[in-house]
Amino acid sequence: MPPRKGSRGKTDDEATQQRHTSAAPPPSILNEAEDDDDGWADEDDDTLATLNDPNVTNLGPNPLIGGNPGRGTDLFGNEAITIGRATSPKLYAQASQFPTVTQLRVWRWENGIPVGLGAIDAYATEEDMVREFYEAMPKPGTGRMMFKLRPIDIRGEEMGKEITLVISEHHAALQQIRRAKKAESDEAASNNNGGNAMGMGMGMGMQSPIIYDRGGDDGGAAAGMATEMSRMFEKAVEAADQRAMALEQALLEERERLRSDDDKRAQERIDLATNAAAGVQAITERMMRDEANRADRAMKAQTDQSQMLLTTLTQIFASAQSQQHSISETARMADQQRLEQERQYAERMRSEAEERRKRDVGEMEERRRLEQARLEDERKQLRDQRDYEMRQLEARLAREKEELSARMERERMEAQNALSLAEKKIERERQEQELKATSVRSEEERRYQREREEQDRKAARERDE
Question: Is the pLDDT of residue 106 over 90?
Answer without folding.
Answer: yes
